[in-house]
Design a protein that fits this description.
With 338 residues, the chain is α+β, with helices and mostly antiparallel strands. Helices cover 46% and strands 12% of the residues. A hairpin with a 4-residue loop joins β4 and β5. The protein is elongated and about 70 Å long.
Length: 338
């Protein structure tokens, strides 16, 4: 990287990957810890260094050496990427944006230099960093997705950084599936208390959830954990926990109920547990009979993220009655297949 040799960089990074992988978890972790301090200053093709660090984690390294670096650098990449179309439109006089590949960097830099904003003091390095974000953002998001599936890593990322990840990811998710996944991972609830009320049976339950990627996965786990629920197929539970997350077309997961929060809002299976709006400081779900058939061919969205949903205890009748009096009636306006 210091020499500016693209071919030399590609050769060196391949050798480093082979060397680290051959040494097992200890050497892989050492490689991650050595690479982490370099990441804040990198961009463009050299952002592949972050991809290598993520690959080391997939091969067995601890991700913790990246906790103070990678989320913040990914935030920056998404923030800069969000600004590119507006700045380009201001400076490019109707020309279409170049494709997000590294060969377009110089054209982006030259064009953005003409933008009025840059005549007020931004240096060439800043302009170049913005231009490079148009094609290197994915290099930062790919390893971030890998490490954010680790519970200890998520716990090490400060709440304000997670909030920034969610905000910047939401702004570019319309053009990046990886950004949408980062938004979901930065929203994951860990060691979160959950109250589930079944109005039909007048029963309630206290649970604790961690590492659940979407509400479809939550559907399966609730049906498996709650007494009296229609038991899901074992293959669905395995797909939702630690098995292959993909289900066959002839054996999709079928929901056992519809979920609403304590404010009466329907929770789509495609949504995430963080969509459950707290009621009096607690996330509360109510169970309603299925309205049509909702089938999913995926048990969990993030294969490396292993969930837990623990049934702590049934609620006492008085507790259940308390929550029943606090609930807003479900607004049952969801479509039959939702």
């Amino acid at each position: 990287m210091k020499s500016g040799s693209g071919p030399g960089y590609q050769s060196a990074i391949a050798r480093l990957a082979d060397h680290a992988r051959a040494g097992g978890p200890e050497r892989l972790t050492a490689a991650v810890e050595a690479l982490a301090p370099l990441l804040p200053g990198l961009g463009g093709d050299y952002a592949m260094t972050a991809v290598l660090a993520g690959a080391c984690v997939e091969w067995g390294a601890s991700p913790m050496g990246l906790a103070d670096v990678l989320p913040r650098r990914a935030c920056e990449a998404m923030m800069l990427n969000e600004a590119v179309p507006e700045l380009w439109a201001r400076a490019a006089r109707g020309r279409p944006l170049p494709q997000p590949v590294s060969a377009s960097t110089q054209e982006l830099v030259r064009t953005l230099t003409r933008a009025t904003r840059w005549r007020r003091g931004a240096d060439k390095e800043t302009r170049t960093r913005i231009a490079m974000s148009w094609f290197d953002m994915g290099f930062w998001l790919k390893p971030l997705i890998t490490v954010m599936t680790d519970a200890a890593f998520r716990a090490a990322v400060p709440d304000d950084v997670k909030a920034e990840l969610r905000a910047h990811a939401a702004a570019v998710a319309h053009r990046s599936q990886r950004a949408a996944w980062v938004h979901s991972l930065a929203s994951v609830l860990d060691d979160e208390h959950l109250v589930v009320i079944d109005p039909g049976t007048q029963r309630g339950y206290a649970l604790t959830m961690s590492g659940i990627g979407d509400n479809g996965q939550l559907h399966i786990l609730l049906a498996d954990r709650l007494p009296g629920a229609d038991r899901p197929a074992r293959s669905w539970v395995e797909a939702a926990t630690s098995g292959d997350p993909r289900l066959s077309r002839d054996n999709p997961a079928i929901r056992a109920f519809r979920l609403f929060d304590g404010h009466g809002n329907h929770l789509s299976p495609e949504g995430i547990p963080a969509d459950i709006e707290p009621l009096d400081g607690t996330r509360v779900l109510t169970l309603h009979p299925p309205n049509g058939t909702y089938a999913s061919a995926t048990g969990r969205v993030f294969e490396r993220m292993l969930p837990t949903l623990r049934l702590d205890r049934p609620l006492e009748p008085a507790e259940t009655e308390h929550w029943l009096t606090r609930l807003t009636p479900a607004a049952e306006t969801d479509l039959p297949a939702d």
